[in-house]
Design brief:
Elements lengths: L26 E2 H14 L5 H13 L3 H6 L4 E2 L2 H11 L4 H5 L1 E4 L2 E4 L12 H10 L5 E5 L5 H9 L4 E6 L2 H13 L6 E5 L10 E6 L14 H4 L15 H13 E10 L5 H10 L2 E7 L5 E8 L3
Parallel strand pairs: 5-6, 5-8, 6-7, 8-9
Antiparallel strand pairs: 1-2, 3-4, 9-11, 10-11
Length: 302
């Protein structure tokens, strides 16, 4: 199989095994997928057949469509086995593949950042409605930059700043901005929340750490053992970051601005009460599961 019917190089050509590594002999695509899905199912991985296809395509540097076109093609076992070993150890699929879709955009991910989740798209939806024409946007604890860059993608007149205490996260967010063609309208800083900024932002976004410290080790191993603890740990009551952000919002938020913060399950009442004591008007937005996922804050009239 030196080439496809159109004369182009075949993406399913066998790849060399790693030097000194011992793996089973090459298999067909169908066999590799069946055995890979079986290993993932035994490790209680959700959607084992889909993940096996994603991992095999990634290992071979081809697409899932390539695998479907040539199910009898012979492929080496080594690359897939190496990836399966990582996934069976519950390393998140997104970290293995190196990217994750969010808001129909492709984001590079790394262990320096949380993996973007569909629940967080609720913040983008709420922000675009509550602040339809922002000029200056701030994303506190930006991670991959997914919240900020999704908003900038939808609002071409906006400029945004993302901050993160992790220099690696800030650098990754900047790389995502470049890959999405948004780097001319986005800047990323390694900073402690909004500390170095003067304010005047029409829209402030944040997905802060909100898991109670004692609860982190009880989370699924993909999260507890692999995602950055600093981006998860909200302190003993899960609200340390909220208090820090709420204390700084009066300075950061423009007079007619709006802040949209992600909430953990069952946190809406407590964060809303704290926000009202600090003089904010509060609204809540539920996600597709009916969980109050976003809190929207505005300055109360004086």
């Amino acid at each position: 199989m030196n080439g496809g019917a159109d004369g182009q190089p075949n993406p399913l050509l066998p790849l060399p095994q790693g030097e000194g590594e011992i793996y089973p002999p090459p298999r067909t695509v169908t066999e590799a997928l069946r055995l890979g899905a079986g290993r993932l199912a035994a490790a209680e991985i959700d959607n084992p057949r889909l993940e096996a296809r994603l991992l095999l395509a990634h290992a071979l540097g081809c697409t899932r469509a390539d695998l479907l076109r040539e199910p009898s093609a012979t492929v080496p076992s080594g690359p897939l086995e190496a990836l399966l070993n990582r996934r069976v150890a519950h390393e998140p699929l997104a970290y293995i593949l190196g990217h994750r879709e969010f808001w129909s955009l492709d984001f590079a991910v790394s262990p320096a950042t949380l993996i973007p989740r569909p629940d967080s798209e609720t913040l983008v939806e709420a922000a675009l409605v509550a602040c339809p024409a922002p000029r200056r946007v701030l994303d506190l604890g930006t991670g991959t930059g997914c919240l900020l860059l999704a908003v900038l993608h939808e609002r071409p007149d906006a400029f945004g700043i993302g901050t993160d205490l992790s220099a690696d996260a800030a650098a990754l967010a900047a790389r995502n901005a470049r890959s999405l063609g948004l780097d001319d309208r986005a800047a990323f800083l390694c900073a402690d929340w909004g500390e170095p900024l003067q304010g005047g932002f029409d829209l402030v976004l944040s997905n802060p750490p909100y898991i109670e410290t004692d609860a982190i080790d009880r989370l699924m191993p993909e999260v507890a053992c692999h995602e950055p603890r600093r981006a998860l740990d909200g302190g003993t009551d899960g609200s340390v970051a909220y208090r820090r952000i709420l204390g700084d919002l009066p300075r950061l938020l423009a007079p007619q601005g709006v802040a949209v913060l992600e909430l953990g399950a069952d946190q809406a009442a407590g964060v809303a009460a704290e926000a009202r004591t600090r003089g904010f008007m509060v609204a809540l937005q539920t996600d597709l599961a009916g969980i109050q996922r976003a809190i929207l804050l505005r300055h109360a009239p004086s």
